[in-house]
Amino acid sequence: MYGPSAKTYTDGSYLRKNPTWHAEDASYKAKDIITLLARNGLRPRSICEVGCGSGGILDLLSQEFEASVQFTGYDISEQVLALCRLREKKNLHFILGDVPEEGARFDLVLAIDVFEHVEDYMGFLRKLQSRGTHKIFRIPLNLSVQSVLCKSRPILRARESYGHLHYFTKETALATLEDSGYKITDSFHSFSPISTQALGWKRSLLKSMKKVLFTLDREWVARLLDGFSLMVLAE
């Protein structure tokens, strides 16, 4: 399902570029997932994450839910699954694969920063649709005024560093899900609160400015500047 770019994730290339496999991002992503579930009154008993990466999100969620809730992570990279399996416990397991096997069904399926990497992303979404009652997506909003004015440098950086193949605004992201057969239940903009210490002073200053503007008008700043994502709850 991932197309030719899948080799990046299976031959160690992605791990060399991103040695933590974004484990440091798990905390705020898990909080956004919990927020979506809470504001929609959902209490899933089985949760699956497709493209689970380091497994950090599922590990954190498993600490927030009752011990009877079952968590399953899927990823196509054997290298990252070796890291995931260090997190395994009675109600948390990891499987090598792109999506759950046909006939498997979960209360909640997570696809956090995933389908922008997939060559046939609509085929992937249609295949995923039957695997869960509810789905939560996190979709990077790479298309913005800033990304266009900067000659697409932020987009090309995301392509080179993170393997993004498709680029979205809020509207095109939601339209993609609807065209793939999903009913949108809820959505909100998300912003990464990670430290700016590792950034140069210019990028650090811009990130701090984005954080301030985000508190004033999320919709507007996500259209204007890059670095934002869309959290979506769908059926």
Count of the domains: 1
Q: What structural category arises from helix and sheet content?
A: alpha/beta
For the biggest β-sheet, the strand order reads 3-2-1-4-5-7-6
* CATH topology name: Rossmann fold
Question: How much of the sequence is in beta strands?
Answer: 15-25%
Please work out how many helical segments DSSP would assign: 11
- Unreliable spans are none
For the record, what CATH class applies?
Answer: Alpha Beta
The coarse overall form would be globular
| N- and C-termini, Cα separation | 21 Å
The CATH architecture can be named as 3-Layer(aba) Sandwich
Q: Total strand count, please?
A: 7
> From the alpha-carbon coordinates, what is the Rg to the nearest angstrom?
17 Å
Question: What's the gist of this structure?
Answer:
This protein has about 240 residues and is of the alpha/beta class. The chain has helices at about 5-10, 15, 25-40, 55-65, 80-85, 120-130, 145-150, 155-160, 170-180, 200-215, 220-225, and strands at about 45-50, 70-75, 90-95, 105-110, 130-140, 185-190, 230-235.
Please describe the topology of this protein:
Blueprint: H1 6-10, H2 13-17, H3 26-39, E1 46-50, H4 56-64, E2 70-75, H5 78-84, E3 92-96, E4 106-112, H6 121-129, E5 132-140, H7 145-149, H8 153-162, H9 170-179, E6 184-191, H10 201-216, H11 218-224, E7 228-234
Parallel strand pairs: 1-2, 1-4, 2-3, 4-5
Antiparallel strand pairs: 5-7, 6-7
Helix pairs in contact: 3-4, 10-11
Question: What do these coordinates show?
Answer:
Helix 5 links the parallel strand 2 and strand 3. Strands 3-2-1-4-5-7-6 form a seven-stranded mixed β-sheet, sandwiched between helices. The chain has a single domain, classed as Rossmann fold (3-Layer(aba) Sandwich), CATH 3.40.50. Helix 3 crosses helix 4 and helix 10 runs antiparallel to helix 11. It is of the alpha/beta class and 235 residues long. The chain is built from eleven helices and seven strands. The model has no long low-confidence stretch (mean pLDDT 87).
